[in-house]
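Hey team,

Filing this mostly as a record. A colleague (T.K.) asked me to run one chain through the structure pipeline before their review meeting, and I want the input and output archived in the tracker in case anyone asks later how it was produced. No errors, nothing strange. Just documentation.

Input sequence:
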Amino acid sequence: MLLFFLFSNINFSQKLTPTFKNKVDSLISAAPKTYREIDKVLRQYRQDSTLLKYLDYKSKDKKYLYGQAYANNQLGRIYRNISLYPRALTLFKEALKISIEANSIEFRVYSLNMISVTHRRTDAIKSALDYSQEALELAETVSEPSVGLKRSINVSLNSIGNIYQMLEQYDLAIEKFEQSMILEKELDNKLGLAINHQNLGECYEAQGQLEPALQNFRKSLVYNEIIDSEKGKIICNYSIAHVYVHIGRINEAITLFQTNLKKAIALGDKKIITTIYINLGWAFIRFGDYESAELNLEKGLVLAKSYDIDSEIAEANKFLSELWIKRDDYEKGMRYFKESKKYEESITNSLNLRYVNDMILRYESQIRANQFERLAEENESVRLKLRKNRTMLIIIGIFLVLLIGILYILYRQSQLNAEKKLLTLEQSMLRSQMNPHFLFNSLNSIKLYIINNEKKNAVHYLNKFSKLVRKILEASSQKEISLAEELETVELYMNIENIRFSNEIKFNIYIKDDINTQNIKIPSLILQPFLENALWHGLSSKAGAKHIDLEIKKGKNGFIEIMIIDNGVGRDAAEKIKNGKVLKRKSVGIDITKERLANFSRDYENYFQVEIIDKYDEENNPTGTQIIIYIPTI
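Output structure:
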């Protein structure tokens, strides 16, 4: 066929008769603007690609856009009918472009329908439905359509029905075909009636309604015989033969298939030839002639692969699988079955069913308005919405800036209050550590050593006193120090305070569990208030041996436990003694320390805790006090 077209182009001038040239010249001079007027003059030449190319050439030379659109559409139909679909699509799209340039709705709709049919024949369902719907929507914008436009509306309805049919939505397809048939009868279009009866027959056959299917195929055949459509007659006959196979009239079916196969080969429509070969092979399987079945199925498969007709490839493989299973060759049967499934899945994926079904629902439920007006309304709506959103965004932006500013001010105020509170606590802590009574008493003790001419002791304790004061001042400027430094400070403090107790107090520090005190950080100067409390309230009024033990060990859940244990008179007795004194010394060091620990805990996952336990003997007599400070390490 390609060689034929090449040959016809070489002999371009030889085929142009004076009659045809005169008709083209007259047509271009008259410049009709409807498909029907042009087709009335050139209908007999629609199958001659050479003459159509001449029409296109002359129309282009004279800038007659309607003649160009007509020529390209008819050339596209020739290529489509011999299964050269890519070339056909190129021509139809060129015709569509020219139709838009000519501002012809009739030719635009015609070209859109031709593109849809081509896509449908190659199983590109999504594209086929898009173009058919666009064609129908465009045609419905004309209040009083011409005869040609009415024919195009029927083509669109028929095409949409075909798409529903491919999607196996047969009731919807039948509805569209019957709508189209009403208009075809109104126009007395026998070709349209033939096509619609054929389509109805295929839908009924797919639903298993073989009698109405056969009736519609026969009606279609009658119309095709009236209009003498060779292609239509072939399609009707092999459809009738297909039903014959279903109802068991195998011999009649084979005869019909074979007769129409010869006619299809003469016609040159590769898709029809492929379909008949495959269906003839299927009929031979039912007849029991497996060799003839294999021969025809293989021929059909080769053709289907040559022209990339996936649906027929799947069908041929399905029947070949059935054939080889009947021959008890299950390995070959399974191989063909898998190949059939592969192509079926490929077709299903390409159909993009979700998109198509959405388009169906949209198409069935919405009333089509003028596309350009709708776009204008949508653009205006979007513009107003954008303006409203922009104003709203500005207001929200200003509000967010103000909110962030207020939150920042509140945050800074909270920080300043926390820092002020921390500073107050540190000052109170320093005043507690540098208690005037402690300083005065310590200096008096050192002075007593000097008066008694105990120079060595005086110098020794003066060094410790000065070192303690220096450590207190250094520690007061730091938020945290190591536990090792804190222990060194409290040891100096206890040595100095022990002077006033005539060195009667035994003070011991125990570090257990291999704890590295250099790595443990605590708030500065937190142990001294607890030791001071143990000295002056627990041990100062006690007769006999006095001792304080400071024990450090690992606790549970990542805590370090610091225990201060004294053998004093206990808290109840100490409170009574304190109340009996004329000058009462108020102890605020422990409360300040607890506040400092709570503030310091913010930087840790766990909190510092202080627990005070009263100790008793077996006879419930107080034997001292135990203070446990829980230090978190994480």
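Quick notes for T.K.: The longest helix spans residues 371-433. Strands lie at 480-482, 505-511, 521-523, 546-554, 559-566, 609-616, 622-632.
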